[in-house]
Design brief:
- This protein is mainly β.
- It folds into two domains: 8-90, Elongation Factor Tu (Ef-tu), domain 3 (Beta Barrel), CATH 2.40.30.20; 109-202, Elongation Factor Tu (Ef-tu), domain 3 (Beta Barrel).
- The protein has three helices and twelve strands; from the N terminus they run βββββαββββββαβα.
- The strands form two sheets. The chain has a six-stranded antiparallel β-barrel.
- Strand 7 (109-118) and strand 8 form a beta hairpin.
Length: 203
């Protein structure tokens, strides 16, 4: 589990195609590689990936993770190339502060950035979610976009908006977004469970 509070911005430094549609990603990070356990979960722009390698190349630390064919099909990982910047978060440990909201790292779909309005040190983003996910998105609810925990401001006609504060613009990849960008979307776990309960009572 994660919280949607980004603790590092990494960079893809190598992409290797493996057998059966598997893609190995090597990601530069500010994390101390000695603290990354092989098999540990790291959220990479909202996608929970498993560390399968770690090390240093010169003065840069890195870890490697494999993205399966299904992950490549359902998320933006298929678009990642050398130089792609990724929001990183390590998995929760017992006793850690829950600063955002509970995030599983299992991406539900891809949202498209329709408009961006910049203000003094802040930005308002308007996005379209896949139609099948729209019912889980509500004003004042939570959503994770590329692994960042955000509060939904407004929902209208299949679109929703979020306001990005100065700190988030500075310490995540959201500051560099342009219209047309595709973002990994995870809806709030509580909204998903509530939706399932309603479906069950109606059946």
């Amino acid at each position: 589990m994660f919280t949607g509070i980004v603790s590092d911005v990494g960079e893809v430094i190598d992409v290797e195609e493996k057998a059966d549609g598997l893609r190995r990603l090597t990601i530069a990070t500010g994390y101390d590689p000695e603290t990354i356990e092989i098999g540990a979960s790291i959220a990479c722009s909202g996608i929970c990936l498993t560390a399968v390698g770690r090390g240093k190349a010169g003065n840069r630390a890195w870890f490697a993770a494999d993205a399966a064919a299904e992950t490549l099909r359902l998320t933006t990982a298929a678009d990642w190339r050398r130089g792609t910047r990724l929001n990183l978060e390590r998995s929760l440990r017992l006793g850690d502060e829950l600063g955002g909201h509970l995030v599983s790292g299992h991406v539900d779909g891809i949202a498209e950035l329709l408009a961006r309005d910049d203000f003094v040190d802040m930005a308002a983003l308007s996005l379209r979610a896949p139609a099948e996910l729209a019912r889980f998105i509500a004003p004042k609810g939570s959503v994770a976009l590329d692994g960042v925990s955000l509060t939904i401001n407004k929902v209208e006609d299949g679109t929703f908006s979020v306001l990005i504060i100065p700190h988030t613009l500075k310490v995540t990849t959201l500051g560099g977004l342009e219209v047309g960008a595709r973002l990994n979307l995870e809806v709030d776990l509580m909204a998903r469970y509530a939706g399932r309960l309603l479906e069950a009572t109606r059946s």
